[in-house]
Structures are given as C-alpha cells and as structure tokens.
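User: Round two. Same drill as before: sequence, then structure, for each protein.

Assistant: Same drill it is. First protein:
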Amino acid sequence: MRRAGPQPRKVLELGLFRGPAIRAPAATLMLLVPRDERPLRGDAGRVDWRLCGRISELLLSEFTRGDFGEATLLPAGPLLPAERILLFGVGDARALQSHGVWRCLRAAVPRLLAIGTRDLSIAFPESIDLARHASSALGGLLEGISAEHGSLRMRAVLPNADQHTAALRHATNEVARAASRSGVLLEVEWIRDPADPGVSAEGPFA
C-alpha cells in the first residue's frame, strides 16, 4: 500500500512473507528473546533448533540473558538465509502486552541501525502473538524510524504473515495514518519465498 503525497525522507517497507522465519530473506534475522522463556518457543525456538541449540547454550551460560534492550550479534551460518542474527532482549514475557511490544520494537531500531542493517526479518517468540500485537509491533518500528535524523529506508520482513492477514490489514491501515502524520512512507507487499520459486507471493497487500 502506498500513500500519495510528497516523497518523504523516511520509508518503512514491510515485506509480508508466507514462510517461516528460518526461510525469510533478509540480511539480518532479529530474534526477540524473553528473559523468562526457556526453552525458546515459536519462531525464536525454530531458529535455535536450526542452529543446533547454539542460542540456548548462550542463554544457559548467561552470556546473554534476554534483559530488555540487551543486544548480541552472531553470524547466522549456512543453514539460514540471513547473514547475521541479532538477539534482542525483551525482558519478561508477561510484560509483552499492549505497549510492551511497541516498546521492544521501538528500542530495537537504533540497535539495528548501529550495526548497519536496514534489512531485517523478525523471529517472534511464542509470547508475542502477531494476531494480537501487530499494531503495537508495527507502531514501534514506525516510531523508531520517525525518531531518527535524516533520510532512512528500512525493510522489515514479517514471517507467517498469511496466518494473520486480518490483523495485519487492520494494523497496516492504522499505522499508515500515523506514518502519514510522521512524514514516513509506509509500503506493504507480499514477497516471494526463495525456497519455493514455484509459488508466486509477490505483489501489493490488498
């Protein structure tokens, strides 16, 4: 979806991906890590499984803990399409309600920019239900981008998006209005699964 008007200096591009986070095409895979969810579940757990429990080992050793705002950068390895993984702590899972998810994604944007990434996919833990928290998640990304100085384009890929189309449609409509007020252009499109080239999933989100 594209909003008419003067070209803003900031763009948030949402790529809606039908496949899981372990196949999402992006330079950086951001894994949201709760402090009290062990073992990791949801998309975060599937990424850990693909890495043979490497993230669980780091958590058990307390090299990283999942405290809010904590960031740990890892190479992704050959089994994931991303080049690197950012473990981003979100604090206690029970706090991830209402504005908790907004706060997490808002805080993640400066960390992503600090490591030079503007192209990411997001692996959500089981404690974040995208059907419930889509507006908060997208609103946090939007606020993080609008708070930055200068021009900026960030692409964020949301996995398993076909399971939450109604929630995402409501969220993108809501966030588009806020983006327009903030001078940010919101673009939303389905993107192709590179692991399944026979299925076309490209095009506008309508």
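Second protein:
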Amino acid sequence: MKSEGPHSVARPMRFYGHGLPYLGEPEVRGRLIVIEGPDASGRSTQIAMLTEKLEAEGHAVINTGLKRSELISQGIINAKRSLGTGKRTLSLFYAADFADQLENKIIPALKSGYVVLADRYIYTLMARDVVRGMDRRWCHDLFGFAVVPDLIFSLEVSPAELVHRVFQRQSTLDFYEAGMDMGFSEEMYASFIRYQSLIARQFRSMERRYEMIPVDGERQTLAVEKELETRILRFLAAQSA
C-alpha cells in the first residue's frame, strides 16, 4: 500500500490500552478520522462527500466501517439472523471484525500516509453493549487494542427524526437498531425511540472522555458536510504545516 498524501512526519501510534503487542511500536504518517452516529444520521453520505473533497485536495483516502471484515462480517450477519445469539458473543464477533480491519487495513493505511475515514468506530459498539447491560469498564478494556483517532465527530439526530428518515429510505425498522431484543415494548416504534434515546445518552456520556466533537446532524446535508470539511481541512493543514 502506497500513498502520495501530504503527511510525511512519522509519529508513534497511540492505543486506548495494550494495543497489538506483536506489531511492536509502529509509527504512522496518516490520520484517522471517525464519523459516528446512529443509522440514518447521514454518516455514509458524509463519508462519501468528504472522501471526494479530500482527494480533490490531494489527500490519499481510504474508508472503513463496522462489519466489513472479509473474515468475520458474514458470521455477524448469520448470528444476528438467528436472533438468539448472546449479547457477549455478539460483542466479541464485532470486536473480532474490528480487530481484523485494524490490523490488515487501518494500521497499514496509516503507516502509508492515508487519511482513514471510519464510518463508525468502537464507540458505537461500546454504547450498544452498555445499553444492553454490559459492564462499561469491560467494554472499554475489550477495545484496548484500538488506535486512538485524530478526530472523532458524533452526528446528533433525535430518535423522532431518525424514524422519519428510516421510513423515507425503507419501509421497516431494523430489529436490533430498534432494540427489540431488549424487551422495551412489543411495538417496534416505541422500542426504537427508547433504544435510540439510550444510545444517544451513552454518546453524550462518552464525549468528554473520548474527545468527541458533537455535530448537529439534523441540518441540511450540505451544511453538515461544510462544517465537517472545514474542521478536517483545518486540522490536516495544521498537522502538515
């Protein structure tokens, strides 16, 4: 993997915990930027627009996201279809998916000077697990091997607006995104509102600890993109100065 991006100063990679000891102490030239947010918050659209803009500015860009490991992703799909998979098992499935991408995609890209745009990261996984009753410390420690991003943006959209957007895009709510496995309500709409409200609360509690930047995701798409673009380009310019 080779990049012609502008990042030339190598720096030690930072991890949230023990990292990946067998990789030694890798140095990187690229930048890791995370766009977090619930389903229908506009993350994927923003990632696509930002990728195009950054490449036009001369940055080499690569995208990543949850459930994209060639080794693990199908296992997650199969486990969720069964509806009977334990919450800890599902959590470990997602952690394995993330670990595979981290080692074989994210870290090599950062070493080569790429800007890595992540469509969600470990924060969504931790928020989901805590809402489902998992211990907060266990969730954090599980991802001690995760690289600390350079920037983390959290798109904030109310559950009521999310429902509207989901039904604009498709005719039904997702079983897990509606928290139907939690037993909040037999009615999917009510369960969705309750579950997404709890997820949003978890993100607000994580903002300070993980240095997330909240972004109003209920604005027009171009307004959100302009804010993200301005912040990211300003950051990249400062780092390469």
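The helical segments are 43-56, 73-82, 87-111, 122-131, 136-142, 159-169, 188-210, 221-240.

User: Perfect.
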